[in-house]
Structures are given as structure tokens and as C-alpha cells.
Amino acid sequence: MRLLGRRRFLPIFTTQFLGAFNDNLFKTSMVLFATYQVYSDPKVETQFNALATGLFILPFFLLSALSGQLADTRDKAGIVRIVKTAEIGIMVAGGAGLLLPSIPLMLAAVLAMGVHSTFFGPIKYAILPQHLEPDEVLGGTGLVEAGTYISILAGTILAGFISPKEATMIVLGVALLGWFAGRQVPPAPPLHEEHTFDWHIVRASVRLVNATMHIPRLFLAICAISFFWTIGAVLIIEFPPLVKNVLTSDQQVASLFLAVFSVGVAIGSVAINRLLKGQVSARYAPGSVIAMAGFILLLYAVARSWIGDHPGQLYDIHEFVRHPSALVLLIALLGVAVTGGMFVVPLYAFLTTTVDKDQTARTVAANNIVNSGAMVVGSLLAFTLSALGVLAVDQLLMVTGMCFVSAWLAWKLHLACD
């Protein structure tokens, strides 16, 4: 926690915190608006959420190679200032979409937010080994992850309790604060001179992934992280229609559902750092994601047996928490998130400590390409299953199976590195 008092860490932490808050306030406001006020078909609601998720992720798949090259060959602090300036314009467009309202404009803003996050993503991790001591990197990574999910929590909760007009005003204000915080990030110049820059998106992406994935521990870490974020993407897609159509609850409960998930990942991120005592190790990862599968099965069982008291009416948040099954449901949800956080943080630390400091941004970018490709596939799978009539609650069983694949990959990584 002492890092939060240091200028070499606090500005980048604050910039990331505000950016994640803004992204999630806008995205959650948009999804809840569409789920509860625009559509009334569970199938269409799930498909819209999958489309929004896919559009946000797509730039990571297409542009991460360029963002990694930029972060390794330009001053990272300078890139932060550029992307935070762009965020102001994106939020103007997104706010206009909420106010009109205009679904195409909102989706365009989500796509632009994905581009913004693609170019900021490698920096928030790659800058840490450059500004922090080696024994501070895992702690710094954990704080960034915890801060990210706390900001997601705040944005997600707030979205369920405010109007589109209020959301617009807030995202614009926070974008301005993020611009100011980004200007305080200390310089982080490239660590070596490089004169070549490949602007060909496909060729650069293939080269970047090939240059990274041939290292066994990086290959295993990236694959495990990819399965984790695919799981996370599918869960986030399913939560709003699950809450509305299975748990018969309103948008404030949907916001609570997403918030509990976010705070749980933050708790898991900090807890694993305490358990590992600063050591970069995957020894707890397999057990964590197997426990995650168990909690998902519990969540499925409770949701499947859920009985609403008033057919045709939605619970508000006060009625929801008084439901006899609500406590077990929330415990299962929190367990999913905590074990997920414990699983993924050490794997990110592998990415930033296994390679030379001048290659960390590209390593994170390669990870983003593979992760985002897997998440797009997950979004398409959720979209397709919904189109085929598979209910959101039943798709949780697919997620459980994916946890065991992640556990196997994490076990291989543990054997290879620990």
C-alpha cells in the first residue's frame, strides 16, 4: 500500500482507476438501459450484451500489435496523455447516445472505448517494471488489479441508480479528471532505440504472437489468462438477462450482481499477493480456478431452483435480499469472483517479469491479442447459444467446463516454473 504514496505509481494507478470507472459506468448504463427499457425478449437481450461485449473486445484483437510497438518505442507517459485526451471525445459521443437515445451511437462509443483501452492496456502493466523495484512489481500489479475492480464496482453500482442524463454528466467529468491525472505520470521513455515499426495489422499481430508464444511459460500463462477472461466475458454477458428473466429482479439488482463480482475479484487480487508474499508463482492457480468451477455450479443450482413470489413483477433490491435463496446466491457469486482474482493476478505477474523490461509492453500486447480473440469467440458462442434457445442460466454449465481447462493450463505452468 505504500506505493500509493509514490509519484512513480500513484498517477498511473489513478489514471487507470478513473478510466476503468468511466468505461464501466457507461457500458453498464447502456446494457441496463437496453435490457430493461428497450428489449423485452431474453434471447435478444443476451444477444445485445454479447454484441456490445464483442465490439469492445474486437480492437484488442486487431490493434494490440500496434499498441505494443508504440508502448515499447515511445514514451509511455506521452501515450497516456494522448489516449486520455481521446477519452473525452469518446464520452461526448457515448453520452449523446444515452440521451437521444441511439443504440448505434452507443455501440459506436463502445467500439471507440475498446480502441482507447487497447492502446492504454499494455502501458498500465509495462510501465510498472520500469518505475518499480523488482520486489514491488507483484504488489503493484495486485494494486492495479484491485483498483481496477474497485473502480468497476463503483461504476457498476452507480449505473443502476442514476438516469442516462446523470450518467452522461459523470462520464464527461471523470474523463476530464483522467486527462489531468494522466499528465502527472512520470516520463517512461523507451529502453532501447528501434527504427522499424510495422503498421501492417495482420503481419504485426502474427509476428508479435509468434515472438512471444514460443516461450513455454509465457505460452501457458497467456493461454490460461485467455480462458479466464473468456469465462469472465461470458459471465458478464449472462448476468443482466439472468437477473431479469431468471431471478425476476430489476436493474438495481443487476447492478448489484455485477458489483459483487467486481469486488470479489479485487479481494482475490489482494489475497493472492498476501499468500505469495511477493513471489511470482502459479502454485495456487489450479486450485483457485477449480474452486471457481465449484462456485459456478452452486450459482447454477441456486438460480435453477429460484422461485419468484410475484409472477410478472420484478424484485427491487430490498425484496431481492430478503429472498430465502439470495444469501447463498450472493455467496456463490462472491466465491466465483474471489477465486477468479486469485487465479489471474500471478499469471499477469509472469508476463511482466519473465521477459526483459524493454519487451514487457509487447508481451502484454501479445497477451491481449490472444485474450481478446478468445473473448470474441466466447461472445460469439454466447450469442449463438442464445439464438439456439439455450438459456442464460444453462450457459453457466459451459463456463464450468472452461474452468477445468484453465486449471490444467495453470498446473502445467506451475510444473514448468515453480
Automatic annotation (TrEMBL):
Membrane topology type: Multi-pass membrane protein
Any one GO MF annotation of this record: transmembrane transporter activity
Record's keyword terms, sorted: Cell membrane, Membrane, Transmembrane, Transmembrane helix, Transport
Pfam families cross-referenced by the UniProt entry: MFS_1
CDD domains: MFS_MefA_like
Signal peptide range in chain numbering: none
Regions that span the bilayer: 46-67, 88-117, 137-162, 218-237, 257-276, 288-307, 327-351, 372-390, 396-415
Domain of life: Bacteria
Major place of residence: membrane
GO cellular component entries: plasma membrane
The keyword Membrane appears for this protein: yes
Subcellular location: Cell membrane
PANTHER family: MACROLIDE-EFFLUX PROTEIN, MAJOR FACILITATOR SUPERFAMILY (MFS) PROFILE DOMAIN-CONTAINING PROTEIN
Name this polypeptide is given: Putative major facilitator superfamily transporter
Lineage: Bacteria, Pseudomonadati, Pseudomonadota, Alphaproteobacteria, Sphingomonadales
